[in-house]
Amino acid sequence: MKKNNLRIFAITLTASVLAFTAACGGSSYDKNSYEPSYATESAGASDGFYGDEAVELYEEEAPGSSSNNATEITEENAESNKSNRKLITNINIDVETQEFDSLVKFIKEKTEQLGGYIESESINNNSYNSRSERYGSLTLRIPEAKLDSFMTSVDEKSHIKNQNRNVKDVTLTYADLEGHKKALLKEQDQLLTLMEKAESIEDIITIQDKLTDVQYQLESMESQLRTFDNQVSYSTVVMNIDEVIEYTPDAPKTFWEKATEGFVDNFAAVVAFFESLLLAIITHIPTLIVLIVILIIVIIIVKICDKKAKKRRAEKMAKNAAMHQNMAQPQMQPIQPNVSQPQEAPKETPEDKK
């Protein structure tokens, strides 16, 4: 009876630990330092099931044994089985069209018709040079088996300027992940078997910690495999679309052709600049009128102030000049000349005449 109670208590505690671990987002995992040696780490930790028999049972079926190594896929096996290769295809393509809306609509419909989907879309209705009206960018996911058919349709409906195809072989990486996943699944089954046979709480907690690590690794492996499956099954096509008046010639251009095209493009750019400037001026006439009136008022005020300042400076300069002139002349009384008055001759009397 005590043994059954202990087992029930241990199972309850295990469930609690598992729930707490899941709530915390799982335990940390170091892929490089991971070593699946559960039985050897806890062997002798208790007198329950984790004894010599448990060690022998785990070592016989542990990952990395000779039976598990037989399932690994080597590079030679991957090369010999080309039909099962995992290839990720990415295409970058630049196209020109004179019917922008029609081409964009065709590409969308063709993508859905082939079983693909649009991952992202960006359409700009503003021109960015003299030869282009509108441009857009589409990121498409096309089924690998129908990729050539899609590219042929695009070539028929538009003018392809540049095309870059990149194929990445992930066969070995995919095989390694699958092998690791199989080993982890077998390891998980063995841990669950040991969990059922464990009798002590310490053994159950130890097994539970290792089981959590294995489950975390399994989730990571499955996520990577799903990503690879999507990238292999659906090729990525990044398409840049330019709306043009005339298509870019495919033949190599001579020096004079390049010079003429550059001159025409620059002249068109200058014309476009002045057109934009004129349009901006016309649309901002009310604002310009207000600014001009304010500017005129400011200029008048500045001129009036400058005129008054010049007048004050002239008056001040005249006053200073007069002051300096007065200080230069000494304050002296005029000297009256001492001129003797001539004396009148005495008048002759009658007596003197006699």
Give a short summary of the structure.
The chain has 354 residues and is an alpha+beta fold.
Question: How does this structure look, described?
Answer:
- The chain is of the alpha+beta class.
- Helices cover 59% and strands 15% of the residues.
- It contains 12 helices and 5 strands.
- The protein has a 5-stranded mixed β-sheet.
- It is elongated, with a radius of gyration of 51 Å.
- The N terminus is likely disordered.
Strand content: 5-15%
Give helix % range: 55-70%
* Strand line-up in the sheet with most strands: 2-3-5-1-4
- Poorly predicted spans: 1-6, 19-73
Order of helices and strands: HHHHHEHEEHEHHEHHH
**Which structural class matches the secondary elements?**
alpha+beta
The largest β sheet comes out as: 5 strands, mixed
Given the structure, what is the number of helices?
Answer: 12
Kindly provide the radius of gyration, computed on alpha-carbon positions and rounded to a whole number of angstroms.
51 Å
Mean pLDDT: 75
Q: First CA to last CA: what distance? A: 202 Å
**How many β strands by DSSP?**
5
Shape: elongated
